[in-house]
Design brief:
174 residues, alpha+beta, 2 domains, six-stranded antiparallel beta sheet, two-stranded antiparallel ribbon
């Protein structure tokens, strides 16, 4: 994957022909693992072709797998937010676009990458923003704590999983 071309091409509002209305502008955020494209009310998260001790995302197949896993895992707590995995294709003009529609010959374009498609959440409603403004209530914190406690109570367990939660295993990761 050519990360520079991906970043340039998906930063264009025209790269989202499948959306009912093209975004006015696209914001790009980069992490050590991903590129995130904020396009209107959607976010597209693309895994970079990187290899670290904890992840090997060097092939398209592996990056697609990690996108699918992100959607599967995160839907457990935020099911409505995660729409799925979408292809990024090379359109007839050789520019990259998010697939999923019929515009610009993308239905027959070569799939060159995948992205997680999710709703864009309002930044002013994030817990960090609410805390900063003094608007996070005790009830909100209690609801969050109860939801997380219930989630962890229902999570799969077993010897293979439990071995990663020992003090020694945690120290090794830190």
């Amino acid at each position: 994957m050519d990360v520079a071309q991906l970043q340039t091409d998906l930063a264009r509002p025209e790269a989202y022909p499948h959306l009912p209305e093209p975004p006015e502008r696209v914001e790009v955020l980069q992490t050590h693992l991903s590129l995130l494209f904020f396009a209107g009310d959607r976010v597209y998260k693309v895994k970079k072709p990187v290899k670290f001790d904890f992840i090997d995302a060097t092939s398209l197949e592996k990056r697609k797998h990690f996108c699918e896993e992100e959607v599967r895992l995160n839907r457990r707590l935020a099911g409505d937010v995660y729409h799925g995995v979408v292809p990024i294709v090379k359109a007839s003009d050789d520019r990259l676009v998010i697939g999923g529609g019929n515009s610009q010959d993308i239905s027959s374009g070569e799939v060159v990458e995948y992205a997680v498609e999710m709703d864009r959440l309002p930044a002013d409603r994030m817990l960090s923003a609410l805390l900063k403004r003094g608007e996070a209530t005790e009830s909100m914190i209690d609801q969050l704590a109860n939801r997380l406690a219930d989630f962890h109570e229902e999570c799969e367990t077993g010897e293979e999983i439990n071995q990663h939660a020992t003090p020694e295993a945690i120290r090794e990761q830190v």
